């Protein structure tokens, strides 16, 4: 029955040929299963850092070299990026051979995918930090020529004719842009009318960690090492209104991330996602420090309505363990990292009063802010689950470890609806 349902979903996706964005766009009716599907490929080394869904194809990025089909022994060379059928696990010939880590992926038009990372060569040629790739042959799309000057691209989201890119670069697509740009999705060149003027005068540099775009394309949110946007103070979180048109800084802001966490963290924010309505956003963090009102190692939900200062609707503490990724499906807010516990505001690398065990992955109720009963136990915890993507088939989980739901799924798993 599960395979028939997945096949039907794949047929529907192929028929409408809609690219699933990296940000929240799906409204699941319920929390996903804790029993992973049996057919996802295994990644035998390194770490999975990114996903994109293009039709019925899952594209996987990270810093790995070898993959193997489920239940098989034949090893396939795939350097930092590969693709497989979402409903069968069949590994495709697609092999663009990135020369460095792929940190972010986003579905493109006409059977293509956008890739971002620290690479300088990918898809058979030199193109630094960002490229568009054909799923048919793994080659770079010749028309997309934008690239970064140095550093990396850490997050890509798309909307209509635009591709939004964030990272640690200072120039992209032919324009000077500190950490954030709006690119023409066909040419890769930066839009000259979009400049958020990000700055970080008290930090080493601007370095954005993650982006999210609302389903209607109106709001773009960015988190990372940033202190100013459009000439105004913003501490680690920037929300841009009318992002796909005449972009401007939103009146919305928060001050809860002004206090530092552990020394050495110029930003301790790691991920952000909108809910399927675009009304709420959840932010996850690392930081390794404790104390009253500190937002280190937390998941926090914000209401995006209204102007001015906003405090979290709720905050869920891990008690000292990092959260790296977040996916909001409406039914649940999934968070991934190397956490041992959730609901742990009194923990200091310990299980404090009220803490619940949720190793490596958890689901939080959007209403209460408490961990749900969902507990597939990603073990060992390793560095953490850095990649989560909600799809019509279920939740994709990417990490650096090999066990989830009591089963062996090396660095990649899908928890079905």
Automatic annotation (TrEMBL):
Keyword Signal carried by entry: yes
UniProt signal peptide: 1-24
Record has Signal as a keyword: yes
Keywords recorded for this protein, A-Z: Signal
InterPro entries: Delta_60_rpt (IPR013431), Quinoprotein_ADH-like_sf (IPR011047)
Domain of life where this protein originates: Bacteria
Pfam families (UniProt xref): DUF5122
Protein name as annotated: PKD domain containing protein
